[in-house]
Amino acid sequence: MNTTIAAITLRAMVGRRRAVLLLAMPVILLGLAVALRLTGVAGVGTSRAVLGAFALGTLVPLLGLIIGTGVIGPEIDDGSIVYLLAKPVSRFVIVFTKLVVAVGCVAVFAAVPTLAAGLIMAGDRRGLALGYGVGALVGGAVYCAVFLMLGVLTRHAVVVGLLYALLWESLIGGYVPGARTLSVRQWAVSVTSAVAEHGAVPADVRLRVAVPLLLVAAVAATWYAGWRLRSLALTSDE
Amino acid sequence: MPPSDQPSGVIHDIGYRGYDGARLGRGYLVRSLFSHSLRGAYGLGRPARSKVMPALLFGAMALPALIMVVVMVITKAGILPMDYVDYIPVTFYLISIFLAAQSPQLVSRDLRFRVVPLYLSRPVSYADYVLAKYAAMAAALLILTATPMLIIYVGALLTELPFWAQTKGLLRGLAGALLFAAVLAGIGLAIASATPRRGFGVAAIISSILVSHAVVSSVQGIAIGTGHPTVAMYAALFTPFYLVNSLQLWLFNPRVSLLFGSMPMPQGWQGAAFAAVALAIVAGSASFLLLRYRRVSAS
Amino acid sequence: MSVISIERASRWFGNVVAVNDVSMTIGPGVTGLLGPNGAGKSTLIHLMGGFLAPSAGTVTLDGALVWHNVDVYRRVGLVPEREAMYDFLTGWQFTLANARLHGLADPEAAATRALQTVEMTFAQDRRLDTYSKGMKQRVKMAAALVHDPAVLLLDEPFNGMDPRQRLHLIDLIRRMGADGRTVLFSSHILEEVEQVASHIEVVVAGRHAASGDFRAIRRLMIDRPHVFLIRSSDDRRLAAALIADGSTAAVELDGRERALRVHAVDFQRFVLLLPRLAREHRLRLYMVSPSDESLESVFSYLVAS
């Protein structure tokens, strides 16, 4: 973990326009939570639906995508990453540092707002807020690792990531039951289920299957990203 | 060449000629820009790499239609599994990815490499440029969404479903596709032109569509569950796919849709709100683009 | 003493060979890498900088491979061609970050020194995106110098610079070379390379075309045997007259071309001799054309020598 790289990455990440996009989504989530609470509709079932489908199902993957690709994609795209590469710094350290920054951003922009939205809607009933907050953090972290790896592999990481999310998580997850075991979202749901009160959140994948898979996915993606970064070719514009 | 001690020189007119012939007019320029952009949206005329994504998405869009046709032929079911107007709302994710991926291809590249002044130094005004780009994106979307409908149509006729009913259904579907194309193209291009970075543009477009879609879905689910169907109906205004879907079903007949027929749909004058919002999106996007490119052309 | 050694290195991208069997040694002092656009200069610099792996051959710095070797960057400073930097940082912050990334013991002092060397201290507290192109180039140099490297690689450093900035950069590069560093810069403009580099490597279409002192190369290019194709009113008489003089190595009457082919070994002498002989023997010269001015033949001659 290299503090200089972390500082540069963080500053690049939260620069103006990108910050607007990153901020907009938790604001919408919190706005929705408040609106539901004020109209008296927020209950356990509603909270499960909103936090599960909206926060965990849409917000976390999207933020994971934007943040995960955003910590390394633009630098590779415009070539400024050469200033990190032309240093006696291990590529794995570079990748890991950026991942730490990404997870931090995900925590701030996805996990904490999910926790807050849960508290607003359901209070501390059935541990839903905490459960979904932790699930969002864990899921977001793995998404970051995977999409950061994609950012190293291709310049079209965002679109490829979207296709992955579409094909894998939605379609196959919907139609091929076995594939759910390999879905980051389902792992996050398992973690949520474990943290929340027993039985409050149904999960398709057992915790003792989900956690190792989460770790394996995160570690493997991070390692592979560092491996490929060693051989990154500096190209000219486009 | 004879060696000579005296410096002398002569320049021969060997190539450069001015052009005095007929020049094709502004209409030709705009049409060319349109067709060039449209082809670019599908990666034609660009390296093979840029054809992968559009080809993949086009295939993915057509695939369910093909499967439907095969199923119809095999089972001789006699009815369509879903109506023509349902196809777009069902495949909205794919269409969104196409919009998010290709809108930046049309506008971000020109902005990033600052070639817009090159276009504008020809008898093309920035309004023409915007018009051509907008029309190209809308046409690209139309091709993407109309082709599966045509596939279903052909399949339906092959399985000898009633001709007139099918034709009417197709025409309704195509009209709806046109509405979708107009609204979506505006949204995609407006967002994409706000940033010269391609990846960021993609993220912004897809986020806008997916997040608004998810929020509205949640709200609709809750509203219906708690007995507020009107809220559910008007919630659709806030996300493009539900907006245009409600609009198209209001224009035709909600019962035409086999999937969304039971959802609360605008009746009578309520639909005017939807038409107004759709129009506002188209006009607003076009204005935004015009303002954006007027600034670019002035800079 | 740091020496970059490129041995029979080639690099291809699919069917395109960017660098073709190049061998060269870059030692202390200023070396200019000269070649037309697309000749493979950038590829060569990337190979030397460890950003590309050679498809064949080796690239080493003092015996150690530069590929997949992050420690080599302690001794190498790279000034890349692309303009993009971390625009949101100030000149000072950028140089300091580079110093820190090198793990220097006193990064602030090193950054100050580097900025003073490139004379950018006056603007160091302004953001990089407010800099002009020349200023950005100088800050890039500062970032490359901050760890006092023994090797400096500059990729097209003079691109887009105005005359004053050029002079400043030339002076800087000369100083670096005089310090005993190994400095390599690329350019496609002969005059730039001429003014700065003591040693030149010429690369054409991926091949190593020439190497050595600039004046020696220029002389080689003029002093090589020239082949002329001549048509006159009496080719045979002219041939006899020409071969009598020492500046001509061979004459050949080409029946097919109906012309005289002459191999001249002393160019300066020959070009004065030919018209004089023609006048003396009352011959009319209809055509005198050099028949091996193509780059290929020049190149093959240079490579052979």
Fold topology:
The complex is a heterotrimer of chains A (238), B (299) and C (305).
Chain A: H1 3-13, H2 16-38, H3 44-70, H4 73-78, H5 82-85, H6 91-122, H7 128-153, H8 157-175, H9 184-195, H10 207-229
Chain B: H1 26-41, H2 49-75, H3 87-90, H4 92-112, H5 116-120, H6 126-158, H7 163-193, H8 198-225, H9 229-235, H10 240-251, H11 270-298
Helix pairs in contact in B: 1-4, 1-6, 2-4, 2-6, 4-6, 4-7, 4-8, 6-7, 6-11, 7-8, 7-10, 7-11, 8-9, 10-11
Chain C: E1 4-13, E2 16-26, E3 29-34, H1 41-48, E4 56-61, E5 64-65, E6 76-79, H2 91-101, H3 107-117, H4 133-145, E7 151-154, H5 163-178, E8 182-187, H6 190-196, E9 199-204, E10 207-212, H7 214-223, E11 226-232, H8 235-243, E12 248-254, E13 259-264, H9 267-280, E14 285-290, H10 295-304
Parallel strand pairs in C: 3-8, 3-9, 6-7, 7-8
Antiparallel strand pairs in C: 1-2, 1-4, 4-5, 9-10, 11-13, 11-14, 12-13
Helix pairs in contact in C: 2-3, 2-4, 3-4
Structural account:
The complex is a heterotrimer of chains A (238), B (299) and C (305). Chain A is mostly helical and 238 residues long. Chain A is built from ten helices and no strands. In chain A, α3 packs antiparallel against α6 and α6 runs antiparallel to α7. The two termini of chain A are 30 Å apart. With 299 residues, chain B is mainly alpha-helical. Chain B is globular, with a radius of gyration of 24 Å. The mean pLDDT of chain B is 87. In chain C, α2 packs across α3 and α3 crosses α4. Chain C has 305 residues and is α/β, with parallel strands linked by helices. Chain C starts with a strand and ends with a helix. Chains in contact: A-B, A-C, B-C. At the A-B interface, α2, α3, α4 and α8 of A face α4 and α8 of B.
Task: Quickly list its features.
heterotrimer; B: 299 residues; mainly alpha; 11 helices; C: 305 residues; alpha/beta; 4-stranded antiparallel β-sheet; 14 strands; 29% strand
Beta-strand percent range of chain A: under 5%
What overall form of chain C do the CA principal axes indicate?
Answer: elongated
Helical content band of chain A: over 70%
Approximate strand percentage of chain C: 25-35%
N-to-C CA distance of chain A: 30 Å
Provide mean pLDDT of chain A, rounded. Answer: 87
Shape of chain A: globular
Largest sheet of chain A: none
Number of helices of chain A: 10
What is Rg of chain C?
25 Å
Order of helices and strands of chain A: HHHHHHHHHH
The number of helices of chain C is: 10
Low-confidence stretches of chain A: none
| Elements of chain C, N to C (H/E) | EEEHEEEHHHEHEHEEHEHEEHEH
